[in-house]
């Protein structure tokens, strides 16, 4: 038997924080390729520490629904799962975006755990970002005249937080899919507050590389960009700011194509996903290189 565990951060303050995790788990559960599919959280129930005890399967694939490699994916989750002899070097990721998977034993439940890199650094996330941009504009062949801003939180405490954003910006830029592609941040330079200063394109699509919609994506970023003075009054899509049309998408993690990324992470770690017809969604054209 094989099981899939999708682990997310969760929140005591934002009830919608866990929604994408449950939604993508449901999508994968419906494919029937795993005997068991579970969700687990740091700030909600079921917890990281308890989730393996709820499984009957001996073979478990754990995929973090996190954006970047860092404190939670490298230390907290392996510790709470009690992975025997865990060492982050087993991921063989020296650049902060290349973690694949490492196989360990969960000592207290005697299960084999294939611990995967975070969903946010997988190459297929570039496709999800493009799909998100397409869905908010309604343009499946957007290109000329469109710029793309990929927005991350950014933090001086963890340099890998910015690396994931820049990685996907570079990949999408190289694809030639948009006239301009920039990586912007909330808490470091270049800042999303000044989004119009970084683009010449008349239309700019802004996609936050966040797992779930919350305070940052629903309140801070729209106000910082000048879409509205008060998020509670709402704003139009697109909104004209400094003579440019800003198309704001909200968190990329809510995009249904995310389920494919989770499946691919597990498949690369050895999960048998045969029987899923063309995964769960069709991919956008022009970014994936495999």
From TrEMBL:
Keywords: Cobalamin biosynthesis, Cobalt, Lyase, Metal-binding
Pfam families: CbiX
EC number, as in UniProt: 4.99.1.3
GO molecular function, one term: sirohydrochlorin cobaltochelatase activity
Cited SUPFAM superfamilies: Chelatase (SSF53800)
UniProt name for this protein: Sirohydrochlorin cobaltochelatase
Listed NCBIfam families: PRK02395.1-1 (NF002670), PRK02395.1-3 (NF002671)
Superkingdom of the organism of origin: Archaea
Keyword Coiled coil included in the entry's annotation: no
InterPro entries listed in its UniProt record: CbiX-like, Sirohydro_Cobaltochel/CbiX
GO biological-process terms attached to the record: cobalamin biosynthetic process
């Amino acid at each position: 038997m094989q099981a899939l565990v999708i682990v997310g951060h969760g929140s005591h303050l934002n009830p919608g924080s866990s929604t994408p995790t449950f939604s993508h788990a449901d999508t994968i559960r419906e494919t029937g390729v795993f005997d068991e599919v579970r969700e687990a959280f740091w700030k909600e129930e079921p917890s990281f520490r308890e989730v393996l005890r709820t499984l009957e399967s001996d073979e478990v694939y754990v995929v973090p629904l996190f954006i970047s490699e860092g404190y939670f994916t490298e230390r907290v989750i392996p510790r709470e799962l009690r992975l025997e002899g865990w060492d982050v070097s087993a991921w063989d990721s020296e650049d902060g975006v290349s973690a694949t998977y490492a196989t360990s034993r969960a000592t207290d439940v005697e299960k084999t755990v294939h611990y995967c890199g975070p969903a946010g650094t997988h190459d297929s996330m570039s496709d999800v970002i493009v799909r998100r941009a397409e869905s908010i504009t309604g343009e499946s062949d957007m290109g000329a005249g469109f710029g793309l801003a990929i927005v991350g939180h950014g933090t001086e405490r963890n340099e890998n937080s910015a690396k994931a954003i820049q990685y996907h910006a570079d990949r999408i830029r190289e694809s030639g899919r948009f006239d301009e592609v920039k990586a912007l941040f909330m808490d470091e330079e270049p800042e999303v507050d000044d989004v119009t200063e970084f683009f010449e394109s008349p239309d700019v699509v802004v996609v936050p590389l966040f797992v779930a919609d919350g305070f940052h994506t629903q309140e801070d970023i729209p106000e910082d960009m000048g879409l509205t003075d008060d998020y509670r009054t709402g704003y139009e899509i697109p909104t004209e700011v400094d003579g440019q049309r800003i198309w704001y998408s909200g968190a990329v993690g809510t995009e249904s194509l995310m389920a494919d990324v989770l499946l691919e992470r597990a498949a690369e770690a050895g999960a048998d996903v045969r029987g899923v017809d063309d995964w769960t969604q069709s991919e956008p054209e022009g970014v994936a290189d495999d």
